[in-house]
Amino acid sequence: MCGIFGVMDERRQMMDGSGIRQALSMMNERGSGEGAGYAAYGIYPDYQDCYALHVFFDNSRDSRAVVDATLEEWGEIECSEAIPTYDQPNLRTTCTPWRYFFMPDPSLAPGSASPERDIITDLVMQINAGAGGAQVISSGKNVGVFKACGWPEDVADYYRIEDYEGYIWLAHNRYTTSNPGAWERPDPFNLHDWSVVENGKITSYGTNQRYIESFGYTCSMPTDSEIIACLIDLLVRRHGLDIDLAVKVLSPPFWEDIDLMPKAEADLNRALRLAYGSAMMNGPFTVIA
After folding, report:
1. Do 222 and 158 fall within a single domain?
2. Residue from 20, 49, 48, 52 nearest 36 by CA
3. Phi then psi for 270, rounded to 5 degrees?
4. Which of 7, 42, 54, 196 is the most buried (most CB within 10 A)?
């Protein structure tokens, strides 16, 4: 079972990453030293209107050229640069972390209720499903994900997360069960403004994956948190559910508990279970998003 942690300042007062580093390092018994990650909100005030795309490149110049060209087809790159990193003796570098500050062109998605986010979704799915040696690991505004294979302290020091200030921090210490060498595998998983860290196992993964892919999402990694991020995006952004209803869909009450509810509440929960049965997640799991 993995270690997860989250903190939010409701006044949006900024916190540097030193506290989240210390908090996650106290849960090293919940990890295997083969993956950790952090997500922070509010860290890019100078580019807060841009989508901050964090990308792992497999150290191939060709893969970056392909992503550059793809983004330029769909909008304007405001800034493109390597994410600052600092070599750690216990962390073996297998890719180059990069970031783009990108403005999609909404005119390229006519008829969409949320054209910018539809474009970003399609770009993330297209890049991650390709064989070009690139993986987009975060794609929201004023948010970034930092992860790698290693202990939480090594990953935090590799990115020097104490140099970043955010009003929300999420963290994940991975207890590896598969693909230990893949930098993109540790949580957090991110899509737009939603980032997910999870502890446990979703036993309904196959059903949830087929359901989300029926709406055009492409799941490039067999990881629970990727599915959860896509489900939240579908329910909240595309279907217009508020977050409380989305939670009821993903983790609904038992039928016997619904039978004991007042009629209006029971009718709502029955309707959600019937309409979104394939989105329901079976555990055991704990999620922070």
Report:
1. no
2. 20
3. -65, -45
4. 196
Q: Point out the residues that are catalytic.
A: 2
Supply the pLDDT for residue 33.
67
Residues in the chain: 289
How many domains does one find in the chain? 2
Round to whole Å and give the CA distance between 137 and 124: 9
98 and 208 housed in the same domain: no
Which residue reads 């997910």 in tokens?
196
Looking at the whole model, is its pTM more than 0.70?
yes
pLDDT, tens digit (0-9, with 9 covering 90-100), for 228-261: 999 999 999 999 999 999 999 999 999 999 999 9
Q: Which residues of 92-107 are buried (b: 16+ CB within 10 A; e: fewer)?
A: eeebbbbbbbbbbeee
| Predicted pLDDT at 155 | 93
Asked if residue 184 and residue 235 are part of one domain, the reply reads no
Q: Which domain holds residue 258?
A: 201-289
62 and 175 assigned to the same domain: yes
Q: What pLDDT is recorded for position 37?
A: 93
CATH code of the domain in which 91 resides: 3.60.20.10
Distance CA 216, CA 112 (A): 14
Chain centre distance of CA 63: 22
Same structural domain, 213 and 186 = no
Distances (CA, A) of 64 to 29, 59, 158: 37, 9, 22
